[in-house]
Structures are given as structure tokens and as C-alpha cells.
Design goal:
The structure holds 2 protein chains of 2 kinds.
Chain A: H1 12-19, H2 60-70, H3 73-76, H4 80-89, H5 104-122, H6 141-154, H7 163-170, H8 176-193, H9 201-222, H10 230-246, H11 250-270
Helix pairs in contact in A: 2-4, 2-5, 5-8, 6-10, 8-9, 9-10, 9-11
Chain B: H1 8-20, H2 26-39, H3 56-87, H4 91-117, H5 126-142, H6 145-173, H7 178-182, H8 185-209, H9 218-238
Classes of the chains: A mainly alpha, B mainly alpha.
Bound molecules: fe (ii) ion (2 copies).
């Protein structure tokens, strides 16, 4: 965890190493890397059905390295080793890893962002019922939320034994706000894909509640040894049921937060992250 | 032929309405209304040819514009609701306010749908607008019919001007994209705002016809309420 904070080099020569795969690199110094320019903060704004959405918040080079690195996470964890292997696989020099502004956190963030955007390709309840898969038709909104949560959590399965490391990286001071924002975006995505059309204060309560439910379940899943994550799905069902029966009372939300904080603290202590 | 006392600003808005935008005759109003309501349907899958990507700045403008419009229409609804609560025993005022309120309901429903459709975060200050709008409606109605009309005049002047500003920005945004002005999402938004702007100006006319300017302390009332609207718009664009 000691190498997640990095300096953002602005030397054009290093930038060039990253901007082009080494196999096709030329020695001309025509331009600097796009990585050295400040990145546009990916914020969901006006969602259009006619105008293409802005592209990925990651540059081409970053995406190439990070997607290759993710394949090494099961064996090397969310670590610089995984990044170096990934860079090599994507035909970049090892040193190009230094250009990732936030190092290992970028790897975590890449996983979160790509899986969030992929969710809608897998399941989209806004489609007409007859275009949905057999078992997913005529579901209630809570049932849709449940299916979407499960689908997203399943995407963590290949790296679930490493996900606690990701939690530790996300909880470092400089990464907390980006991590929380990613959680909020996922929660918004799930409500959107479930066909929610709220436009008043319930918009906020729904997203806040789901964020809490999802975060606690995701955490639970890292400690789940049951077959096919049965225990996790049962845990998710209990959380969703609690939300439904207790309603949106404040004490309910705070008890979730309380649980999350404690479970989270335990994970961090086990990872030797200074906490409190 | 009646001679109305129009504020200079009203004349200014009217002038813009004629020169820049097509006039909405009542007969086409209903048809247009159906179109614009349909356009705001989230589940509707009408597809347009893919157009140019919107810039970050344009997307931010659209997001803020739709959020502030939703908040504004929410406020307007509550003002009329408040006035209605006081005037409902007066048959003449009752139907007059009910008519304007009904139009505001349509405005709000349209922007509610647009908020959901375009995934815009609704205003976080809803509880505040709930209280403030209703209180303004009841409060001015208690001061009497003319004060209520002065309130309507101030609010509708601000909202009408605000819609005109948005139209200007939108038309400027699309000045190099002639096809986007002919059909598509943004054209529908322009039509919707234009239609609502006309409704707001109608409310403004109604208020002036009912002697809003004869209200006691008109100048103070008018300016305080307009200032409040400006502050509300400023806040809703941000929060
Ligand atoms: Fe209105
Ligand atoms: Fe109005």
C-alpha cells in the first residue's frame, strides 16, 4: 500500500513512452502525452439519447494498461506488480506505470468504472418486457434492484479474494472522495436501469439507501466462503428487506453506516492501514 | 380596445416574442402541448440520427437549466396553491387562479419527466421551495387580491425573462447546427420552453389586467419578490 501515491511526471520524454506502445515508438518528439494534461473529471450531466455521451474518463493508453493489469489482479492483487505486468502485456515499458496519476487506485477505479458502465449492457429494465430474458420479466422495482445488485456484485467474483486490498486503497485519504463518488454513480446507475423516475427528495433517499446496502453487501462478500456466494445473496436480501420494512427512517440509515464503518475498520486493521 | 398598463419589461418580452420566436396561437397550443408532453416520456424510444457530442459546457448548461426550471415550476405551483387556499371562496378569482395553476401543473409535470429522462439531479432544496412558495402565495393573498396579482406579476416577469435567457442561450448553442433546430431533443426542449414562456407571459398579462400595480406598496412588493426569485434561481442552478 506504500506506493499508491505518486508524482505526476510532466517530462515529455517519459510522457512519450506512455503515449505510444513501444512496438511502434518513433524517436520524434512531436507532442506530449495526453496523460500529462489534466484529466476531465467524469461527471454525469445531461444524459442525451441523441448526442453521444462523453467517452471514458481514461485515456487510451491508461485503458490499455489498466485492462491488461486487471487480468493480473487475481494472482498479484491490486498492486504495482499487477500494473507492471499489465503494462508489459499492453506493450508499454514498465516505467509507464509511473504515469498513472494515482497508481494502484487507478486500477481500482478502472474496475469500478468499467463494471458500472458494463452493467447496462448486461441488464437494462428500461427495455420492453418482451426483450428481457425469460426470468427477468414483470419484476417489481425492488426485485429489479436486487437483480442489478447481484449482477454487479458477480463482476467482483474473479477478484473477490483481492477486493479487501481495493477497500484499503479506496480508504486512503486522497481516494475517499473519488471512491464515494463512484459508489454514488453506481447507485444512480442501478436506479436508472431499474426504470426509476423519481424527481423529488426520494431521488436522494433512494440513492443514499442503495449506496449503503450495496457497500455493506460488497464488504460482506469479501468474507463469504459459501458456495456461489449464497450467503451474500441472503445478506443482500435481508438488507433490502430491512429497507422495505423499516422504511426510510434516519435510524435505519445510520445503523447501516455504523455497520459499514465497523466492518470497514476491521478490514483496514487486518490490512495494516492506520485507522483512527 | 383596452389600454393596458404594461411595464417596460413586459413590452421588452413581448417584443422579443414577436421578433425572435413564432407566436403561439391558442389553437396550436393544445397540439404543441401534446407533443411536448410526449417528448418528455422517459420510456419513449424515439430515435434520432446520432448528432455531434455536446460539450462539457453545454451539458452543464442543460443540466442546470432543467434543474432550475423544475424548481421554478415547483415554486410557481406552490404559490398558486397558496393563493388558491385563500381565494377559493371567491368564485371569480377561484377559476382564474385554478386556470393558471393547472398550467403550472403541466409545466411541472413536464420538467419532472425531463429530470428523470435526462438523469438530472433534482434540486436538493425542494423542502425549502415547498415552504417558501406556499408561504409567498398565502402571504400575498392575505394582503388582498391586488397584492396577490403583484406577486404573480413579479414571479412571472422573472420566470418569463429567465426562460427567454435560456432560449437565447439554446439558440446560440445551435446556431451552427441547423438540423438540430429542425428536429431532435434540443429542438423539443426549445419548443417546450417557448410554450411555457408564452404561458408565463399570459399569467403576467392576467396579473396586470387585475390591477397588480394598484397594490399597496407595489414597488416594494414587486422588487422584493423579484429579488427573491433571482436568489432562488441562483441557488437552484447550483444546489
Ligand atoms: Fe410555469
Ligand atoms: Fe406561470
Amino acid at each position: 500500500m506504500n506506493n499508491t501515491i505518486r508524482t505526476n511526471f510532466s517530462s515529455p520524454s517519459i510522457g512519450r513512452i506512455l503515449s505510444k506502445p513501444i512496438t511502434s515508438s518513433s524517436s520524434s518528439s512531436s507532442c506530449c502525452s495526453s496523460l500529462t494534461t489534466p484529466r476531465i473529471k467524469f461527471r454525469r450531466r445531461y444524459h442525451s439519447y441523441q448526442h453521444p455521451a462523453p467517452g471514458s474518463p481514461f485515456t487510451k493508453a491508461e485503458s490499455a494498461i489498466l485492462s491488461a493489469s486487471l487480468l493480473h489482479v487475481p494472482s498479484h492483487g491490486f498492486s504495482n506488480a499487477a500494473l507492471s505486468f499489465g503494462a508489459r502485456d499492453a506493450n508499454y515499458l514498465d516505467i509507464s506505470v509511473n504515469m498513472l496519476p494515482r497508481g494502484v487506485f487507478d486500477l481500482v477505479h478502472y474496475h469500478l468504472a468499467t463494471e458500472r458502465l458494463r452493467l447496462g449492457d448486461k441488464i437494462d429494465f428500461r427495455k420492453p418486457e418482451n426483450e428481457l430474458p425469460e426470468g427477468l420479466r414483470n419484476l417489481s422495482i425492488p426485485a429489479k434492484i436486487r437483480v442489478l445488485c447481484m449482477e454487479r456484485l458477480r463482476a467482483n467474483a474473479p477478484i473477490i479474494h483481492r477486493w479487501q486490498e481495493a477497500f484499503a486503497v479506496m480508504s486512503l485519504a486522497g481516494n475517499i472522495s473519488a471512491s464515494m463518488s463512484e459508489l454514488a454513480k453506481l447507485s444512480d446507475e442501478i436506479w436508472f436501469l431499474a426504470g426509476d423516475e423519481s424527481h423529488d427528495t426520494t431521488w436522494y433517499t433512494r440513492r443514499a439507501t442503495l449506496s449503503a446496502v450495496y457497500a455493506t453487501t460488497e464488504l460482506f462478500m469479501t468474507q463469504d466462503n459459501s458456495k456461489d456466494f449464497e450467503a451474500t445473496w441472503a445478506f443482500l436480501d435481508r438488507r433490502l428487506h430491512d429497507v422495505k420494512t423499516i422504511g426510510s427512517s434516519v435510524s435505519n440509515v445510520t445503523s447501516y453506516l455504523d455497520f459499514t464503518v465497523h466492518a470497514f475498520a476491521n478490514v483496514l486493521r487486518s490490512k495494516n492501514v492506520p485507522f483512527f | 380596445m383596452t389600454t393596458r398598463r404594461l411595464s417596460p419589461l413586459l413590452a421588452h418580452l413581448r417584443c422579443q416574442q414577436r421578433s425572435q420566436f413564432s407566436y403561439t396561437s391558442p389553437s396550436t397550443l393544445h397540439a404543441r402541448r401534446l407533443v411536448s408532453t410526449g417528448a418528455a416520456n422517459i420510456s419513449e424510444t424515439r430515435s434520432y440520427p446520432k448528432s455531434r457530442p455536446l460539450t462539457e459546457k453545454e451539458r452543464e448548461f442543460l443540466q442546470n437549466a432543467i434543474r432550475v426550471n423544475q424548481a421554478g415550476e415547483l415554486g410557481a405551483n406552490l404559490i398558486y396553491e397558496g393563493q388558491y387556499a385563500i381565494f377559493k371562496r371567491d368564485p371569480r378569482l377561484k377559476s382564474l387562479i385554478r386556470h393558471m395553476w393547472d398550467q403550472e401543473v403541466h409545466h411541472l409535470e413536464t420538467f419532472n419527466k425531463l429530470v428523470a429522462k435526462h438523469r438530472i439531479r433534482p434540486t436538493a432544496l425542494r423542502p425549502l421551495w415547498n415552504v417558501a412558495g406556499y408561504a409567498l402565495g398565502v402571504g400575498t393573498a392575505l394582503l388582498g387580491e391586488k397584492a396577490a396579482m403583484a406577486c404573480t406579476e413579479a414571479v412571472e416577469t422573472e420566470i418569463g425573462g429567465h426562460y427567454n435567457d435560456q432560449l437565447r442561450t439554446l439558440l446560440d448553442m445551435l446556431k451552427d447546427d441547423k438540423d438540430l433546430l429542425q428536429h431532435g431533443e434540443l429542438k423539443e426542449l426549445i419548443d417546450t420552453i417557448r410554450e411555457f414562456r408564452d404561458d408565463e407571459l399570459e399569467h403576467l398579462d392576467t396579473a396586470v389586467e387585475h390591477d397588480s400595480k394598484g397594490a399597496e406598496g407595489y414597488d416594494v412588493l414587486f422588487n422584493v419578490i423579484r429579488g427573491g426569485c433571482k436568489a432562488a434561481i441562483w441557488l437552484s442552478q447550483r444546489v
